[in-house]
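Bumping with the actual sequence this time:
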Amino acid sequence: MLKSYIKIAWRNMWRNKATSFISIFGLTLGVTAFLLLATYILNELRYDRFHHNADRIAYVGLSYQSPNDEEPVFSSNTPTGVVPSFQRMFSEVEKGTRVYANAGPATIKYGEKLINEPNLLYADSTFFDIFTFHFIAGNASHALQNPNTIVLTSSTAKKYFDKEDPIGKRIEINGSPWVVTGVIADIPSFSQLQFNMLGSYQTLARSKKEAWNAANDVSYLLLKSPDHLKALQQKIDAWVKQENADAEKAGFQVRFFLEKLTDVHLHSKVAASGNMTYIYILTAIACSLLIIACVNFTNFITAKSMERAHEIGVKKVLGAQRRQVIHQFMLESALVTLVAIAIGVLCAYLFLPNFNQLIDQHLTIQIWKGTWLIYALGFIFLVITLISGTWPALIISAFKPVNALQGKVTKNKKGEFIRKALVTFQFTISLLFIIATLIAERQLRFIRTTDTGLNRSQVLVLDASKFQSTQLLALKNRLLVLPNIQGVTASYDSPVNVQGGYSLTAGIGNNNQSISITAIPIEKDFTQVFDLHFLAGEPLTQADIQQVLLSDAEQRKYSFIVNRLALSGLGWTPDQAIGKAVSLNGRKGIIKAVVQDFNFTSLREQIKPIVLFPEYDWFGKLFVKIAAGKHMARQLTMVEQVWKEFNPNIPFDYHFLDQEYNRLYQSEIRALKILHLFSVTTIIVSCLGLFGLATFVIQQRIKEVGIRKILGASVASIVRLLLVDFIKLVLFACIIASPIAWLVMHYWLNGFAYHIAISWSIFAMAFLLTSLITLFTVGMQAIRAAIANPVDSLRSE
C-alpha cells in the first residue's frame, strides 16, 4: 500500500510540474531562510557555553556614584586589585583571571614580516584553567606562567610561521621579544573573548601592584559552585561598604556586581555585545517565513483540489475509505516537504558564506553539532507536513463522490474564504517586514546624517599609541605642510565612543560639589579639528599646554573644557564657569571654556556631561582632517609617505572616523541587512501564494469573463473586476499589519535616546509597494484572461 501511495504521489508531482515546482520552490525558500536565521540565533544563544566551567564563571562589573549624581555610572572594567583580593578574601572563589586589552594595535615582527595586530590581549596564568580553549600545541597549564610568553590562535600562527613549528619561536611585539608557548584552535564565533594573540599579564608593569584607583581590566572569577553567586555578591557588597564607609558618608558609592558568564552577551548591564530584542525579532522572522511557506503550499494544494475532484470521486466510488484518501494526500505533502527540505539544507549550506559576508559574522554549520541539526530538520519536516498537509487532506477527503464527479466542489465558499484568509495572512507578514525595514532604514539614515555636534567627516584615524609627545608633535607639523590637510590632532581614545570615567569636583572643603563625569585627554587643536561650538571661553593655547608638560605632576595646572551639561550639575552658567577652580581625579586647574553639548557615544544614550583636558602623557589615536575632493587616494599616499618617515617599522594602517561611528550601530546595521534579505524572501513566497490563488480564482471565473466580453465589456473593465478583490486583501492586510508594526517599531525606537518619529507616509509607502507587487503578480493573469477569445471559454457550455 505504501509503495502504491508513493508511486501515485510521485506521478502526481510529475504530472503537475508547474504546481510542484512552485510548491517546492516556496518551501525551499522558507526552509533555507529558516535554517540561516536559526543558525545565527543559535550562535547568539550559545555564547560562551562551550567552556567546561561556564556555569561557574562570573564576570565582575563596576558601578560608582558621586554625591550629586542622579544615578550610578556603570563600567565594564575593574581595578587590578579585584581578582587577587577577592581570591584571598572570599572562600566561594576558586580562581580568578584578569584580562587587559593592548592599547592600540600591536606591531608584530617576525623575520621580514611586519604586521599590525588589533586583537592582542593579556591574561593571568590562570586564564586557561578557567576558560576552555583547545590547545593544538603547548601546555595549557604553563603557557602563560612566565613573563614575555604568548599563545597564538591557529590562523595567526599560520600567518607568521606557515608550516614551521611555532613553539619556542621568538617574535617581537612593539619592539620587545616574546616566546610562543602555545597554539590554540581559532576562537569560536560564539565567544565574547576574541583574540589573535594572548600574552602573559605578568609582563605588564600593572601586574606588580594591586591598584584600586584606575579601572582598566576585565575580571573573571571561577566559583567553587554555580550556587555561590548570590552569597558571594552579598559578601562583596558588605566588604565594599565597610572599606568605603567614610566615602559613603560623603555620598560616594562604589559597587562590584557579578554576572553569569553565559548571561553577559545578551543581558549584561555594561558588557552586552548582543541584543535580546533582535533575537526575538529574528526568531519571529524565521518562524513567520516557515509558516508563510506552509501557507503558500496549503493554498496550492487546496486551489488544485477541484482538478483532482474526479480522482477522489472515482476512488470513493471504487471503495476507498476517507482515511486512505487522507493518507494519500499526507504522503504527497510529506514527499514535497522532504524534497524541499533536502534542497533547502543544501542551499543553506551553500549560501552560508554569503550570509556571513552580508552580516559580517563567521557562522559555521558546526554550530548545530550534527545531531541538533538532524533533530531540527526532523521537527521542520513534521511541522511543515502537518501544517500544509493536514487541512487540505481533511478538506479533500471530505468530498462527496456525487459532488466530486459533478464538479460541484468548485463552489465551496468556505474553502474560498480560507484561501483568501491565508493569502491575507501572508501579506500581513510581508507588510510587517516592509514597514519594519522602512522605519529601520530611516532611523539608520537619521543616525548617519544627524548633527551630533562633532564634525567627523573626512577624518583619518591613525594609531598614536607608540609615539612620545615630542614625536607626535613633529609628525603633526610635518603633516600640516601637506596640501589639503585641514587639521591634525590627537586624543586618548575615539571621540565618538568616549568611555573614561572620572569625578569632577568644584569648591573647597565641606562646600564642594562632586559629580561623576566622562573625560578624555586631548591635544591642543582637538576642538578646532572637530568643529566644537564654543559657548564661553576660548580654545586651548600653547601656554595651556606648557602648564601640563611639566614633569612634576603636582606642579601641573590644567585648563579644562566642559560641555553645557557638566555645568548643570555644578549650578553654573557658561559665563559664570569660566575661571572657576575645579579638580578632575586630583588634576587641579580652571575651567577654560564651555562647549555646546555633543554626542560622544551612541545615539542610544542621552548626551552626558564631559570634560576635555590637555594631557600629553599618552595618546591612543591621531586624527588627520582631509579636505573633501576627488583626490583622496593621492592624499592618503602623501600621508603614508610622511608616516614612513617617522615610523619605518610600523605598518601604515588607517580607517576613517565615520567607520568607527558606524561600528557603534553594528547590531542595528546587521538587523537591517537581515530585514532587507528576508523581506524580499517573504514577498517572493507571498507572491507565489498569490499567484496560485489568482490562477485558481481566474480559472473559476473564466466563463463569467467570456460572457461579459460577449455583452460588450472592455478589457480594462474586466481586468479591474478581477484585480479589485486582491487589492481588498492587501488593504485588509495593511489594516491588520499597521498597528502591529507601529507597536513593535515604537518599542524598538525607544531603545534610542534620539530617534525619528514614525510617519504615516511609511505605512502608505508599504501599502503602495505591496499593491504594485499584487498588480504585477495578478495583473498578467488577469490581462491574459481578459484578452482571451470568449468562444474558447464558453464552448463547453
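The C-alpha cells above came from a reply further down the thread. The chain has three domains: 2-44+277-447+666-794, 54-267, 467-646.
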